Amino acid sequence: MDINKVFATIHAGLPAKNTGKVADYIPELGKVDPDKFGVQATTVDGREYAFGEAKEPFSIQSIAKVFTLTMAYQRLNKELWKRVGVEPSGTPFNSLIQLEADQGIPRNPMINAGALVVCDVLLDYLKDPKAELLSFVRSLSSDKSINYNKAVAQSELDNASRNRALLEYMRSFGNIHNESDDILDFYCHLCALEMCCGQLSRSFLFLANQGIAPLSGERIVSSSMTKRLNAIMQLCGFYDEAGEFSFRVGLPGKSGVGGGIVALLPGDYCITVWSPPLNYKGNSHHGMAFLEQFTTEVGESIF
Ligand code: GLN
Q1: Is the minimum distance from the CB of 159 to ligand 1 under 6 angstroms?
Q2: Which residues are CB-contacts of 131 (< 8 A; sequence separation ≥ 6)?
Q3: Could you tell me the CATH number of the domain that includes residue 246?
Q4: Ligand 1 mutation pick, 61, 116, 162, max ligand atoms within 8 A of CB
């Protein structure tokens, strides 16, 4: 099958008018051109297929939660699940609602509350969390040019009231140990990582390859841990739209409010799509439509 042609055909078939809306609750994110579109698929055996602005870096936002989750899981192993659950939340990414009933233990590490606990864990283990996260991501994608966008990080820090509220509420249950300012600084930076579709699709390949990064041959996590990370993405990667994404696309994946979506077929490939306008659940509107068409055209999904 000619994947480049499949990409071009699906893109041409997307509705000309995108009904999604670019995220602007972090003012710096609202500046992005809504018409940007890029996609890249990278296979575990090293083939790459790209279309559109696949080399243009964008704000990966919550996609980065998978990197920090992997780092915390490497260090704590199953002890991590005492601090954060693995159940789908069925709530928006920044919701506070379940924390009261769940005694300060977030439902999963993909919602903000869970990702903030993961940051708190990493602050206990890493001397320089921002530098170590950057070097982890650079090594996963074999690309030293990846960096934080300082303006986005600052914009997010200036508008962090809700994330601060999540932290303080969880602290009241004993599930946050470090200073909120330090956790927020780390969290807002990880959300402000900038990567392009190519870099993202390469960096997630270890999850399609039983835990081994194909580019370096390095084992990142065990195959059992890989299974569990993919299960979390499948059930929680799209918040209260995880069912819809599974139903339409049929792959484990993760979205971010920068308009990126990463998805992967274990044993085969990782694909990243970028289109900034979001649907009302905070996931890329055209990104989901594109991936639905893609798995339909190639006739493969995990199901
Ligand atoms: N930085 C964003 C926030 O905490 C991440 C949200 C997302 O991408 N869903 O609000």
Answers
A1: no
A2: none
A3: 3.40.710.10
A4: 61
